[in-house]
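Researcher: Please predict.
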Amino acid sequence: MKIKLMPEYECYPTWVENDGMFDNIDPKELPISLDLANRITKWSDDYEKTYDKEDPRESRFLSNLDKNSFIEEGERLREELITELKQDYEVLLQIDMD
């Protein structure tokens, strides 16, 4: 089974493959620790803060440092998901920033 860690505005950051399509699910529904689920949610909240409701095309991080830190945290979270989910899942990370 595949799980995708992918931030998206106004969605959960976790997606589970179902019949070739990815369904959006709350990270707390995954068989992972509550600590990891909460860290994934915080990571998603950090992304959500970049959303510009008045002009969505202008949504972005305030600096490259913030953007790079966000990407690095996503990579760490992916590795922790792999560790906690064992070999039962293939864990993908997709971050579309531009």
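Model: Residues 2-93 form one domain.
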